[in-house]
Design goal:
Blueprint lengths: L1 H30 L1 H9 L5 H15 L2 H13 L5 H14 L2 H7 L6 H17 L3 H30 L3 H9 L3 H15 L2 H13 L10 H12 L1 H7 L5 H27 L3 H9 L3 H20 L3 H11 L21 H31 L6 H26 L5 H36 L6 H27 L2 H30 L8 H29 L1
Helix pairs in contact: 1-2, 1-8, 2-18, 3-5, 4-5, 4-13, 4-14, 5-14, 5-16, 5-17, 6-11, 6-16, 7-8, 8-11, 10-11, 10-12, 11-12, 11-16, 12-14, 12-16, 13-14, 14-16, 14-17, 18-19, 18-20, 18-21, 19-20, 20-23, 21-22, 21-23, 22-23
């Protein structure tokens, strides 16, 4: 009966630990959401910067698996390079070791404070109406539950330490390679090296020995570093080539580090006692320090060879022939981090905007030069605009289902409005193509003056587009004011072009048959300018 009770406490402890870690990770990520975008915006080719970002992000979200998935998503979205991803992955491995040090604190009696933390956090979550206070409350709950879970694990381990069946079974597993596999397999199962490290530390606190002592327990820790790569590998399934390379780099880095350290431990059988035991009396602390030592030394050794890891991944995961014009980079791995998801959405919206103005210019150029053949290129661009519109809308719907703050909700509303305006610009380029058909089939002619006026108007529309997109990105009052000035200019040009055409009709210089095409053409250009102006004002409209 005591054995069954101990087993139930063990399962309860593991469950509480995993729930606490998940709650702590999810809510720390939510608190740091907007800061994460700023952190990743600071990415550069400087290796130490990438290492620091990876370590810092993992320390914040308390999950190297989550950081690795985010990195795979960022690579897939084209927001960071493979070299940057490599240095961040190395940093993430360092950041995740903090949990092991937290687990080693169970050697001291912190359970009363842990329960108090859960109590305070629960009341903050239940009683506060402010989202940030509630999130902080959940962080406190998660932090406290981690210690409660560790306490339950310790209680279960204490009930097992006098059971010869269990202690003999654990001490009989002394094969280093088997211990490596156990560490890797359990970590892959729980998808958390921190959880496995915490369980191993709990065994040490209870005085239960894995293997024959010595370095044996350290092989389990080494194996956990390989098992943690499984999450990133699974995340890379269905991603683009570079994202799969990032996952392979993560796996290669950890395997190589494990091989080097395993060789040291096999050759130096007294490493744990000679080095760790010399400075740290408690075995739990020794295990936590070893986990950190492994990842820090591997990062120091391999950081100078980051480019070589990238080159190796390119050989292991070769390029695929991609016949499509563009690759969709809206990555669902980033939905859990709304600030990063919105960052890539803005990037795709700008891509859609560039396609829209390119389509409008091609349609206008085809009209001026009577080039019907260019119509196919315009149709292709319009098809891509419509496709991007659907993908962005679907992504926005999914993102709307996440927990968002007020600013993120406003940003989503802004993007809905902007992509609709961009789709309208694409539709207007289709209208211009139809005017080209009429222009050619009915053998219409336009005077040089008329073409000169049209070219001037199109130049101002292009100028308006550039300023509008700048205003969309910066929300600068001066840029918005300039947009309004150019838009007024376009409106005036439309009226002047029509008035000039009527004057030429009266003077017999133009044919009346040209009128419907000319009037519709300048009206469509003016409508395109209106939509560009709406884009520039979109943030103000939502805010107000």
């Amino acid at each position: 009966m005591e054995y069954i009770e101990g087993l139930l406490i063990l399962f309860g402890g593991i469950g509480t630990l995993l729930v606490g870690m998940a709650m702590l990770s999810d809510n720390m990520k939510k608190l740091a959401n907007t800061k994460l975008e700023a952190i990743f915006n600071k990415t550069s080719e400087k290796k130490l910067v990438g290492l620091t970002i990876g370590a810092g992000t993992t320390a914040i979200v308390q999950s190297s698996s989550l950081t690795s998935v985010m990195i795979v998503g960022l690579v897939n979205a084209g927001m960071i390079t493979l070299l940057q991803a490599t240095t961040m992955i190395m940093g993430a491995n360092i950041g995740t070791t903090i949990t092991g040090h937290i687990a080693s604190l169970q050697s001291f009696d912190f359970i009363v404070f842990a329960m108090l933390t859960v109590f305070i956090g629960s009341f903050m979550t239940l009683l506060s109406s402010k989202e940030k206070i509630r999130t902080i409350g959940k962080v406190l709950c998660g932090f406290g539950l981690v210690f409660v879970g560790l306490h339950l694990l310790g209680s279960a381990m204490s009930s097992f330490k006098d059971d010869p069946l269990i202690t003999n079974m654990l001490s009989s597993i002394s094969n280093p390679f088997l211990l490596l596999l156990i560490g890797a397999g359990l970590t892959a199962l729980f998808q958390s090296s921190s959880a496995i490290t915490s369980i191993v530390i709990s065994l040490a606190v209870a005085g239960i020995m894995i293997g024959n002592g010595g370095n044996d327990v350290l092989f389990v820790i080494l194996g956990s570093n390989i098992g943690t790569c499984v999450t990133a590998m699974l995340s890379s399934v269905g991603a683009n080539t570079n994202a799969r390379r990032a996952a392979v780099i993560h796996l290669t880095f950890n395997i190589l580090g494990t091989v080097i350290f395993a060789a040291v431990l096999l050759l130096w059988t007294g490493f744990k006692n000679d080095v760790l035991g010399r400075f740290f009396a408690l075995e739990a602390t020794q295990i936590a320090i070893f986990h950190t030592l492994f990842n820090v030394i591997c990062a120091v050794l391999f950081l100078p060879f980051s480019q070589q890891f990238v080159n190796l991944s390119m050989k292991l995961v070769p390029d695929k022939d991609d016949k499509s014009k563009r690759i969709v980079v809206l990555d669902e791995r980033l939905l859990a981090t709304p600030s990063l998801a919105l960052h890539q959405l803005r990037k795709e919206t700008i891509e859609m905007a560039n396609l829209a103005i390119e389509s409008l210019n091609e349609a206008y150029d085809a009209f001026i030069h009577k080039n019907i053949n260019q119509k196919e290129m315009v149709k292709t661009n319009i098809g891509e605009i419509n496709s991007l519109n659907k993908q962005i809308v679907n992504y926005l719907i999914k993102l709307s289902g996440e927990e968002l703050n007020a600013e993120e909700k406003e940003e989503i509303s802004t993007l809905y409005s902007v992509i609709n305006d961009l789709e309208r610009i694409g539709d207007l380029s289709d209208n211009l193509s139809k005017y080209t058909d009429t222009y050619v089939t009915e053998r219409l002619t336009f005077s040089d003056d008329a073409k000169g006026d049209l070219n001037h108007m199109m130049d101002r529309v292009n100028a308006l587009f550039k300023v509008s997109m700048k205003a969309f990105e910066t929300n600068s009052e001066s840029d918005i004011h300039l947009v309004d000035e150019i838009e007024d200019e376009v409106d005036t040009l439309r009226k002047e072009i029509i008035d000039s055409h009527i004057q030429r009709l009266n003077e017999g210089l133009c044919s009346a048959n040209n009128s419907p095409v000319l009037v519709n053409l300048v009206s469509n250009l003016e409508r395109a300018a209106d939509h560009m102006t709406f884009i520039a004002h979109s943030r103000n409209i939502v805010t107000n």
